[in-house]
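can u do me a favor
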């Protein structure tokens, strides 16, 4: 590890400790609500939840502004993070209740040169995942009550684990691509992924048409079919019959971009195959300019 990488690693550890140590500001809830009501322009993804700019009421989180000179210097001294858009942890918290245990880490995008883009995306993520966590906690309460009603003992109940995290797929001078994921131990059916592919030059969300051109659906379907043809018979037995891949790709917004510009489309469990197949990912093309 180089001296610069070591300095950056140490700085990131300081960041994590700062998130753990700083208490939740009492004015946070109102600040998020006011900002949402002020009119951040929402992105229009396929899922209903992503269409809703739900108020972040009840979100027990902390927005952290890191002002340590050592941290700032270390981050700015790293070329990829110092010169390009940054995606760092903007909210991190844990909460425990009788019925649930919540762990949340949400991304915050910054340094794009477009403050309206940053505000829109950051507030959208906060609002959507606040609603997701609230719904998961309510399900946990209902499950706990059903557990008691059917003779279960409170002392033997295992709280439902709810986790929100994110993964940065790629950041270049042209785009940023990352995924926010929510899981809960109650059932895999409540697994959610939210994909963000941002054009840093226009401030808009990228679509498959944007990155692959007007023939994206047919091109993508052909690429997926080619890869499925290489599966063994046991794997192929999990695929649903008569799946119209081209029709699915016409509406699909679940994809991400790799550093080299490769476009990877993602199918949820049960979307094209039985649940045992899991979440499926297929590279289907590459950005022309990459």
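np, heres the sequence
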């Amino acid at each position: 590890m180089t001296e610069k990488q070591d300095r950056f690693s140490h700085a990131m550890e300081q960041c994590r400790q700062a998130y753990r140590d700083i208490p939740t500001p009492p004015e946070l809830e109102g600040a998020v609500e006011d900002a949402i009501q002020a009119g951040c322009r929402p992105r229009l993804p396929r899922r209903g939840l992503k269409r809703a700019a739900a108020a972040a009421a009840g979100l027990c989180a902390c927005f952290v502004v890191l002002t340590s000179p050592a941290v700032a210097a270390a981050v700015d001294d790293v070329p990829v993070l110092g010169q390009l858009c940054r995606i760092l942890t903007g909210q991190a918290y844990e909460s425990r209740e009788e019925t649930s245990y919540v762990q949340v880490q949400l991304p915050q995008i910054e340094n794009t040169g477009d403050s309206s883009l940053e505000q829109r995306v950051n507030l959208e993520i906060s609002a959507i995942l606040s609603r997701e966590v609230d719904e998961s906690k309510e399900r946990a309460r209902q499950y706990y009550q059903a557990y008691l009603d059917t003779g279960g003992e409170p002392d033997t109940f295992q709280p439902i684990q709810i986790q929100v995290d994110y993964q940065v797929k790629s950041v270049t001078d042209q785009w940023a691509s990352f995924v926010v994921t929510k899981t809960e131990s109650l059932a895999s059916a409540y697994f959610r992924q939210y994909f963000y592919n941002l054009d840093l030059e226009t401030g808009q969300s990228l679509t498959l048409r944007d990155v692959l051109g007007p023939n994206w659906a047919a091109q993508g379907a052909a690429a997926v079919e080619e890869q499925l043809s290489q599966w063994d018979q046991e794997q192929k037995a999990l695929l649903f019959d008569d799946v119209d891949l081209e029709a699915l790709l016409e509406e699909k917004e679940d994809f991400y971009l790799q550093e080299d510009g490769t476009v990877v489309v993602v199918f949820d469990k049960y979307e094209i195959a039985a649940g045992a197949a899991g979440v499926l990912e297929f590279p289907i093309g590459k950005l022309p300019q990459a």
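The chain has a mean pLDDT of 80. hope that helps!!
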